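Troubleshooting log. The previous structure file for this entry was overwritten by mistake, so regenerating from the original sequence record. Sequence copied from the archived sheet and checked twice against the printout by T.R.
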Amino acid sequence: MHDIAFTLNGRPWSLRVEPRRTLVDAIRDDCGATGTHIGCEHGVCGACTILLDGEPVRSCLMFAVQADGRALRTVEGLEKDGALHPLQRAFIDHHALQCGFCTPGFLMLAVGVLERTPNISDEALTDVLSSNLCRCTGYQNIVRAVRAAAEEMAP
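Regenerated output below.
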């Protein structure tokens, strides 16, 4: 067993975990942040995407011990004082979700990208978003939602 400490959505956490425990399992089961979904468990679908020190990562491909001393942000950390993040509002306004299973991963991927590259080109945005899978929407509304949020979030 290993003792680890990290911040999750601004809140400090200390856990005792087995070395083989995945980060997604620790986030969901030990911290109760169940908005991060478990999909393929092979890093392919992107449903488990979170921000680790501001960078999008697949939390199913990481061990919890690798998060020691790091800052984690999940979909639960997007809203502020009860108000939805611009990306969350845009996903609603542009019908960018249907079943919603992939949505947390897309939101975290998009937030990570837009916070680092607010003026990302359409081509680059499409390329980044293509790394996550959605079986319901056909992606066009997701791209529209992220573009709309990017305009709102622009400095």
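The chain is about 35% helix and 15% strand. Archived copy saved in two places this time.
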